[in-house]
Amino acid sequence: MAGSIRLRRPPNVWELRIFVGRDPSGKIRHRYFTFVGPKRDAERELARQLLLLDEIPEPVSEGSKWGKRTTFNDAIAAWKANGWEDLSPKTQLSYQQLWDSHIRDRIGERPIAQTGIYEVEQYFRELSDHGLGESGIRQVRAILHRACKLAGKWSNGMIPNPVSGAERPKGHRREPVRAPSVEEVRAILATLAKGDDLRLYVFVRLAIATGMRRGEIGALRLNDINFVTGELRVDEGVVIGAGGISVKAPKTKVSVRKLSVDAKTLGLLAQLRDEQLDLATRAECELGEDAFLFSFVPGGTTPPYPDVFTKNFASFRARHGIAPDIHLHSFRHFAATVLDSVVSERQKQARMGWSTTHMARHYTDAVGEEDQRAAERIGEILR
Predict the structure, then answer these.
(1) How far is CA 86 from CA 68, 154, 336, in A?
(2) Which end of the chain has the least Cβ crowding within 10 Å, N or C?
(3) How far from chain centre, in Å, is Cα 363?
(4) Please, what sign has the CA dihedral across residues 142, 143, 144, 145?
């Protein structure tokens, strides 16, 4: 069915015309609509009106019907069957949870073509009123936007995308992550050293000393550590998916790197290795060279869930009155901050595994001596 659009009155009053057939005498019949707004929105409205007309034949694509009755759930389900696997396992799990919790029984049951921008924005505001945070609403919008975009493609442009022009409610933005002071870091390590959770103590110490991401620390294996030279190899990360946890190579090559650690941190890594060896011996199993150092399983065959350390640190923080705006990720910011006056910018980017400067990775091996100086400097600060 044909449709057209023309500017009726500048700047943004449009006439939408849809061909609806011929009358008994053979005269061509059209249906007209007036739309006020940008041309792009007028085009979307034309597509929506085309779908709402009973005379529209619903196009068929690969055995699935696409038309005025296609719901948001239908579009998401089709995406899940064709393209969902391109997402990372963690993103798949997050999107599935948001679909089940906030989309499926709400806007998910509504036909896309019968939902306007106003209704979508109203839905976002309802999610906010019910306590869903800004990050969650942003992800919900991303899911709906992608599903509608794919539905439009698979329906040969017949299904509009009402999410494209919809805005999220302006919520209170979360404060940026703060790098803790040297005094705060020293106090945290001193308190952890007096406790009985060696695994958490070493995890936090390593995060502070190297700036490694929590998934990178969780994926650290015994054969990644050179206890003679004090170097660590970072080439994996723990990811969470619908099927559980797995270990994958980093998304970017710059995240694959070697890091030097100070003597104190290296000694704590050796202490945790000995504890894991003792645990494996008591469980009558072996601790292989590729065992995960921070594993909770005897023998270290399974990497730990990163969330466990996040929750354990949050509990530790609450028990000891530590500032609530200090998180595990804060220590990555701390490591980057204290290196400003010690090493060059390119070396800091190489040590942190950033892709901001594309050439940083190429200098990693060439500035090993500088990296050692960075490790020693952080060791001095923590003493």
Answers:
(1) 28, 18, 32
(2) C
(3) 28
(4) positive
Q: Are residues 370 and 226 in the same domain?
A: yes
Both tokens of 299, joined, read 């023998």
- pLDDT on residue 20: 67
Is the pLDDT assigned to residue 58 strictly greater than 50? no
**pLDDT tens-digit map of 281-321:** 999 999 999 999 999 999 999 999 888 999 999 999 999 99
Query: Cβ-count burial of 303 within 10 angstroms (0-12 exposed, 13-18 middle, 19+ buried)?
Result: buried
d(C-alpha 129, C-alpha 225), whole Å: 49
- Shared domain for 226 and 163, answered yes or no, is no
pLDDT for the residue numbered 361: 38
Q: What is the pLDDT of residues 40-55, one digit of tens each?
A: 888 888 877 777 664 4
Sign of CA dihedral 206, 209, 213, 219: negative
d(CA 244, CA 241): 5
Same domain, 33 and 71: no
Distance CA 136, CA 68 (A): 28
Domain count within the chain? 3
Residue 243's pLDDT is: 66
pTM: 0.58
- Cβ-based neighbours of 63, under 8 Å, separated by 6 or more: none
At 147, which CATH number?
1.10.150.130
Containing structural domain, residue 53: 1-57
